[in-house]
Write a structure and sequence with these properties.
The chain has five helices and 17 strands. By secondary structure, the chain is mostly beta strands. The protein is globular, with a radius of gyration of 26 Å. It starts with a helix and ends with a strand.
């Protein structure tokens, strides 16, 4: 009876000490809090052990940091690359960009958490950093998250269309060759946004909303280089529909330099390179998909407008309209296949047409490792603003130098 009383008393004292330690030392490491509470161990060591472990777990649960990443590498055959007939290469990130990152959260109380994410992109074949050599070029932000008010993040982030619209597009499954040639509508996230503030709503009965503003940071011209965007998605059962708008100011040439702003460049191939002097870019994009049984069917449409001003090398707004449809078939939980067709048409300053088809398969070797293969073909016709239109497959950004291009790749991806 006496031993039971001592045990229960020690148990209560240990919990009290744990609670007091957490309140008095909220920023102490859990192990240090354990050290504080173990002063009650004499004569009651066994009884106090479980509360002490629980105390450490409670303190530790208040914050967490996760290391994660993807290493993606594969063999690529390209027919027509830069005017040459054949190119064989080992390419990093054909399906998912190779990356490593840190993300974390800390419970602040009242349903609010502090969050952060730092994500580096790299070339698995050379070890060099991607995204222009940035250390954390994919993402780098800090913010606050609340179950009722939503999430606010600040830093280098993706735009709302990437978060809410892209998951319903074909490239959301097997990557960059299932999107518009040259990624002229940022449908495959070629551009990320610096100096940005983004708000994401909680889920309201299947509805999600996001808003973004990127500061241009130019003295005397607050609108120079700014970006702003908004998107909305609705999910009900297997049905998803999403849409959004993105504006990117390309910089006031009087107070700044054309091409300087909060958004990364979208001018990575011959499809839109002639319009790199655009004063601004406005993108409207909608997407939908429906998942049933072992199938998912979907598509997206975009309207991208590259506007001119007195500092531009062209005079008429160039408009890129892209339509894409796709189908995904899950043969088994480990094996899927995808097929898509993409049509891009440009009008205004110049006129060109691009027809693109892609098929691919992906097989899971485990929960973290898969192998994949994709075959794509693009044919171009018309003028691209600087000459004859060249074929470019999706967001690979490789100019064919000719009217057609074929790309075949087989790769291995590991996630950790």
């Amino acid at each position: 009876m006496f031993q039971l009383l001592v045990s229960r008393t020690a148990h209560a004292l240990s919990w009290s000490a744990c609670s007091l330690a957490v309140q008095l030392f909220p920023h102490r490491h859990p192990k240090k809090i354990m050290t504080l509470t173990t002063r009650f161990k004499y004569g009651t060591h066994i009884a106090a052990t479980l509360p002490l472990i629980a105390c450490a777990q409670i303190a530790q649960a208040q914050s967490s940091v996760t290391l994660y990443g993807i290493v993606d590498n594969g063999f690529v055959y390209t027919h027509n690359s830069g005017g040459s007939s054949t190119k064989l290469s080992l390419d990093s990130g054909s399906l998912s960009g190779s990356r490593w990152g840190l993300k974390g959260t800390e419970l602040l109380g009242g349903g609010t958490s502090a969050i952060f994410q730092l994500e580096n992109g790299f070339n698995a074949n050379t070890g060099k950093m991607n995204q222009g050599g940035r250390l954390f070029g994919r993402q780098s932000y800090v913010g606050l998250k609340n179950a009722t008010a939503g999430t606010v993040t600040t830093g280098r982030v993706y735009d709302p269309l990437t978060d809410l619209v892209q998951p319903s597009q074909g490239d959301g499954y097997l990557g960059q060759t299932f999107t518009s040639p040259g990624d002229v509508d940022n449908a495959d996230s070629s551009a990320r946004f610096n100096n940005a503030v983004k708000w994401a709503s909680p889920n309201w009965f299947g509805i999600n909303v996001e808003l973004l503003y990127g500061f241009g940071g130019v003295a005397g011209s607050t609108g120079s280089g700014q970006s702003y965007s908004g998107a909305l998605s609705y999910v009900a059962g297997g049905y998803t529909v999403a849409g959004g708008y993105l504006h990117m100011d390309r910089g006031n040439p009087v107070n700044s330099t054309r091409g300087t702003g909060s958004a990364d460049s979208l001018f990575n191939s011959s499809v839109n390179m002639a319009y790199a002097s655009a004063a601004s870019i406005d993108i409207y994009r909608i997407a939908t998909q429906y998942a049933f049984s072992r199938f998912t069917l979907g598509g997206y449409y975009s309207d991208s407008r590259y506007a001119a001003d007195g500092a531009s090398t062209f005079s008429r707004t160039e408009i890129f309209r892209n339509a894409s449809v796709f189908g995904v078939w899950y043969f088994t939980p480990s094996l899927l296949a995808e097929a898509s067709y993409n049509y891009l048409k440009s009008t205004g300053d110049s006129s060109a047409r691009y027809h693109q088809g892609s098929v691919g398969v992906d097989y899971l070797l485990s929960k973290r490792t898969d192998v994949y293969s994709v075959l794509s073909y693009t044919h171009a016709a018309g003028q691209n603003g600087s000459g004859n239109a060249q074929a470019v497959i999706g967001a690979t950004d490789i100019d064919a130098g000719r009217a057609s291009q074929v790309r075949f790749n087989i790769g291995l991806r590991h996630r950790f």
